[in-house]
Amino acid sequence: MYPLLGFVLGSSCLLYIGSPYGFGLGSNWLLYIGVPLIIGIWAQIRVSSVFGRWSKVRANGNITGAECAREILQAAQIRDVDVVETNDFLGDHYDPTKKQLHLSSSVYNTPSVASLGIAAHETGHAIQHAKAYAPLKADAAIHHYRRLVL
Ligand SMILES: [Zn+2]
Q1: pLDDT of 33 higher than 90
Q2: Does domain 60-149 have CATH number 3.40.630?
Q3: Contact between 61 and 111 (Cβ < 8 Å)
Q4: pTM for this entry
């Protein structure tokens, strides 16, 4: 559940920073906290269900997420990024500071359509980083914060 917790804490922090009187939100607090919370819960459920469905479908290429990521990195001539396994469920992300591509165990080890989709997506961030694509930072902050959108 911690992606959700992060989302709630994040929205609260933004609110606090944005308001000179702290949490003086009047009766609008429901709008500022409740709506992002509900969208966060909805997105989380949606991601889990889509992942669940496509993780049962084997990809034609019959390669795992890790193999897929390494092949894309090689094709993009990126040789300094490590693909590592993480235990965190749906904790897949690219870490630009360590140049590590973290893939959750189910993505790392499974040759499913869902695994390849996530692995390819995360590898895209490594490519963006290698090419110094500026919106990467915004993406890491917002979109992986965490997994609102696949
Ligand atoms: Zn992403």
Answers
A1: no
A2: no
A3: yes
A4: 0.68
